[in-house]
Specification:
mainly alpha; Helix Hairpins; two-stranded antiparallel ribbon; 3 helices
């Protein structure tokens, strides 16, 4: 079968017509998939992946009871662990919440002047 030209490609109910398979079947080719889906779906996919990664790391941070210091109690809540995950993944740096535990036993938070 000859390959369709750009003029033969058209959108038909969320599927790029003129191809041998629907757009949603391009999961093995992420670049083609990102080009083929609509912008709102791409932005929702990126936001969903970012949320899923942060939820995963928040759950992992909760495995160490004293792994996050600077919280309201001796053990960080899930909301604090999620905030810490967003803060570190976004390269914002350490603020009130900071890592404490086996990896850095001498760390007691950022050094503040005065």
């Amino acid at each position: 079968m000859p390959r369709p030209s750009h003029q033969e490609l058209r959108w038909d109910r969320g599927i790029l017509a003129g191809r041998q398979r629907p757009v949603w079947r391009h999961w093995r080719e992420p670049y083609v998939f990102a080009l083929a889906i609509p912008w709102p779906a791409l932005l929702a996919l990126i936001a969903g992946l970012y949320l899923a990664i942060n939820l995963l790391f928040a759950a992992l941070y909760r495995l160490d009871p004293a792994g996050i210091g600077g919280g309201a109690g001796p053990r960080a809540s899930f909301a604090e662990a999620f905030f810490f995950s967003v803060q570190t993944l976004g390269s914002i740096g350490f603020g009130v919440l900071h890592p404490v535990g086996l990896a850095c036993p001498g760390w007691h938070g950022p050094a503040l002047p005065g």
